[in-house]
Specification:
424 residues; alpha/beta; Rossmann fold; seven-stranded parallel sheet; six-stranded parallel sheet; 16 helices; 13 strands
Amino acid sequence: MPEAPLRIALLVYRGNPHSGGQGVYTRELARELVNLGHQVTVFAGQPWPELTAGTAFVPVPSLDLYRQPDPFRVPKPWELHSLVDLLEVAIMMTGAFPEPLTFSLRVHKLLSERRADFDIVHDNQCLGTGIGRLVDDGWPLLETLHHPITVDRRLDLSHAESFKRKLGLRRWYSFLRMQKRVLAKMPRVVTVSESSRRDICAEMGAQPEQMHVVPVGVDLTNFGPLPEIAEVPGRIVCTTSSDMPLKGLVPLLEALAKLRTERPEVELHVIGGPRQGSAIPGHIERLGLQGVVTFRKGITSREITELYASSQVACVPSLYEGFSLPAIEAMACAVPLVATSGGALPEVVGPDGEAGVLVPPGDPEALAAALGRLLDDAADRRRLGEAGRARVLERFTWRRCAEETVEHYRWVLDHHARNRPIAG
């Protein structure tokens, strides 16, 4: 007898797929869960998610203190309607990041009023105090943790140029103490790679028996080869929703400058854009790359796929990745990939030279050499592109991700039923 479809509350504190992998994960997982026959309601904060037909949406409005073009804004008095609003402003003004805490408190209140509407709650990397309260209240809950944010903190601190900057970063990342406490309450946590699983246990105190790997996927209806689009000689493409040190954009710019000494036609297209006050424009000027680097922010999936098709090589220069959606999107488009060996990238790309080229993280010389070899070798580009797409089709689909996630929902529900206190 087939098991009954589930009613799932899927939580994401920042929903927009253009602001990082959490938004993509929410949209694509929700779509495939609905296709499997389940009911999915996404509870999300700003930036709002872009969801497909059949997925219900409940907005969980914040004060949106980091919106463009006025990040770190101070809201007007009439925007403040609750103690949580006041808390959000107070935390922001001390230099810390309030959204995991304040979203969790808001969504806890919303779900407390809808206990009969859902079978299970699935939290996407918020791990705020309110999420812990849902567990305490008796909700069956599955957690997704893509990678330990402790790695982001460590890399940011290592690149900080002043004591004041280091103090500011330690304050910004202070939410990690809360996330570690809440993580300890979770009966089951899924993550996206064995690398992330090891690092979450080592750095955030998770127990190995809590942690299970469910790789994410790529939307094959949007990402695939477009043979009708001609390659542009020397064009390299890189996707990064952030110019934080973690993403390795500066080493790639340094590699690009080296490449251009022998290949003046080389150009870089970055899917994404630098933040306000970013140091990236200064690096571009220092390296003489004005007019060579183009940032493409807010473009559609179709435009991304067309950009991949026109590029000779894709690059993921990250110092660390818990997985890498840009890597599998490029591979799905049959674009030859150069990536670093940081974090889970070897799991995603496979052994060096089989479906992509791997170089050490943070090494501009190695990046330049690998990119140069591929730019000079059309046959190897074709071989790697075909092998990369085959690897994605075999291993990384959202349908497979959704099916495996449902297995973990069933485990959580069974665990919850077996461990529920007996009344009386």
